[in-house]
Amino acid sequence: MENFKIEVDGDGIALVTFDVPGRTMNTLTASVIKEVGELVERIKTDAEIKGVVITSGKTTGFCAGADLGELGGSGGLGGASKGQEGLQAAFDAGFALNKAFRELETSGKPVAAAINGLALGGGLEFVLAAHYRVVADLPKLQLGLPEAKVGLLPGGGGTQRLTRLMGVMAAAPYLLEGKSMKPAEALGLKVVHEVVPAGQEVEAAKTWIKTKGDPVAPWDKKDFKIPGGGPYTPTGAQVFIMGNAMLRKNTYGNYPAQQNIMKAVYEGLQVPFDAAIRIETRYFIKTLMTPQAKGMIRTLFLSLQELGKGAGRPDGVPHYDVKKVAVLGAGMMGAGIAYVQAMAGIETVLIDQSQEAADKGKGYAEGLVKKAVSRGKLTQEKGEAILALIHPTADYANVKGSDLVVEAVFENREVKAAVTKLAEAQLADTAVFGSNTSTLPITGLAEASIRPESFIGIHFFSPVDKMGLVEIILGEKTDQATIAKSIDYVLKIKKTPIVVNDSRGFYTSRCFGTFVQEGMELLSDGIAPAIIDNVGRATGMPRGPLEMHDDVALDLSHKIAVQTKKDLGDKYEERPFTAIIAKMVEDLGRYGRKNGKGFYDYPENGPKTLWPGLSDLVEVTVKDADKALIEQIRTRLLYRQAVEAARCFEEGVITDPREADVGAILGWGFAPWTGGPISLIDGVGVATFVETLDQLAAAYGARFTPPALLREMAAKGETFYGRFGVKEKAAA
Ligand SMILES: NC(=O)c1ccc[n+]([C@@H]2O[C@H](COP(=O)([O-])OP(=O)(O)OC[C@H]3O[C@@H](n4cnc5c(N)ncnc54)[C@H](O)[C@@H]3O)[C@@H](O)[C@H]2O)c1
């Protein structure tokens, strides 16, 4: 065996060390799954072995779970054909691990797990099949089943063993939300039996084998009862009734993984364990074959990981270590950017018009650091060292020596041009100038620069400390070195970069804007605001389009509409709703959440309520929604965003499907269950998508008309990931 090392000591205890060669972290690759079976066979048949201790040879942890690259890829189980034979083969392959773990559990020999680092997903399922679990007392060690987060179901016995250990109610957040637990928490929940100082776990496991060494799992004992009662008891049944209602409320039925986890638990807890794990595998395969699982694994795991390693970075440019950055403008965005930079150890010059304004910006970081210290997430010294990296000033001479500049002053061309000149006067030739503009085209802003090849858009999202995405925007003259350097900077501050070309609203704001606009179209169509926002949420977006419009700010939206009309002239298409917004902003002072008055009223204490005055501005003709109307609204809201993303491909605004999908979910909260707008289109099939768009265009107008690219792809039977996949990009 190449993944497991076995050493039998004088007491007949076999120490099994799990150590996948050539990897920093153990995962359950196909080779490991095969060898777990061989390992169990050896344990069962080797008379010398009286008991087993399983541990990991990696310093990084015990095991991070399934190899999602293998599992989710087209060659993996998710790509199994749906015919009877294909399904049987997928079941057999999917059941192999479950079966091997069960054989370990019923080998007749006591098995203890010495957990010396994180155990996630299949890693935790592995140790759950042991009879005794000792875990090292490491503050960062995590135990959990995160499968649901990428649209999967734990398929190595996790749904059955965790519920039998903890009870259904207690296990629910760990199974359905993928919540993880620290050692002490796991001990309290009876998921592990002992927490010992790091380094002593193997000894403690051996002691258990020598002193107690019970080789029977609790559920294989005669008097076993599910904590809190199984589904057939009155209390247990109640948990399922409530649980299903909660699940529906939180997920609107968009996530098959969560639904299938509930079903696997409900059905599995009513039968003996051996039948239960077969039920689990059936739901595991069923879940894995859904487009939701495929999209979520690809986007939220694989692509996120690749972009986090700089997948879109141009080759041949040496790594650029950004040590000092000047942030121009210490307002809401500048202050947040200064904070994340300092957290990453970057010396930060924070500039505003006055020392007072710059100090105020640093005050924001001081607040966040204070909070982190009070919560025990940072020590006092570390907090002080971080804050000492931020130098607030009004003097541009301090820009000298910066490797990069992030400009975050007012959204005004003249002001931006002025600070560009002031900063560039201090910069070395190699330094990058990045603008955090949210709406002004980069090529235009670069006209104020004496070195436009080093000028780029570095677009953050608010609140900067929470949002993981940064959109890098290329101007016409931006060179490859500047792109690479900007990516290095974004990775250093632990954010995910996507690279896009200049366009009105770039990629993220442009696509997100269509969601808000379609909400306005629905309003102009006479649909009741409550229906619009309820269905909006049910699509899987974080909030409905009207509420999101309030978040964006109605005055900003009005300002952008006025500016766009001015810029586009004859090409500007006036929509009926622009008059509604104009009236709300100009006559009624309703600016959105920021002044407590928008489509909703936001009282200081108390929940928001829909603004009753809206019915004076727009006539509501549809007050009830049947299933068909709900489906239509849902399709309009999701497809409007997806077709805009497709247009961005056609225009070359974005070129990599991974960036489009990751950017959508991280940037504007596009319904995660889809895997992103591009995965959504690929999932339904381009031809079917085009057909629906044609119907929508006939009913609602040209904004739904499929771009030529989509028609061409439909005719050729192409997918986005096929046509714009990684290989083609590299060849281009
Ligand atoms: N607010 C958002 O959600 C968001 C998101 C992404 C990008 N942006 C963009 O970021 C930029 C800043 O936005 P914000 O929300 O932080 O605005 P803000 O009004 O909070 O801050 C702007 C700051 O720039 C300072 N400033 C103005 N002129 C200056 C000068 N000549 N020199 C130095 N400082 C000067 C102002 O005093 C103010 O503190 C804008 O371009 C905006 O479009 C905003």
Automatic annotation (TrEMBL):
It comes from the Bacteria. Keywords: Fatty acid metabolism, Lipid degradation, Lipid metabolism, Lyase, Multifunctional enzyme, NAD, Oxidoreductase. In the central section; belongs to the 3-hydroxyacyl-CoA dehydrogenase family. SUPFAM superfamilies: 6-phosphogluconate dehydrogenase C-terminal domain-like, ClpP/crotonase, NAD(P)-binding Rossmann-fold domains. Pathway: Lipid metabolism; fatty acid beta-oxidation. Residues 324-502 form the 3-hydroxyacyl-CoA dehydrogenase NAD binding domain. One of its GO terms (biological process) is fatty acid beta-oxidation. Pfam families: 3HCDH (PF00725), 3HCDH_N (PF02737), ECH_1 (PF00378). GO terms for molecular function: enoyl-CoA hydratase activity; long-chain (3S)-3-hydroxyacyl-CoA dehydrogenase (NAD+) activity; NAD+ binding. This is 3-hydroxyacyl-CoA dehydrogenase. It comes from Caulobacter zeae. It catalyses: a (3S)-3-hydroxyacyl-CoA + NAD(+) = a 3-oxoacyl-CoA + NADH + H(+). The keyword NAD applies. Residues 505-602, 635-718 form the 3-hydroxyacyl-CoA dehydrogenase C-terminal domain.
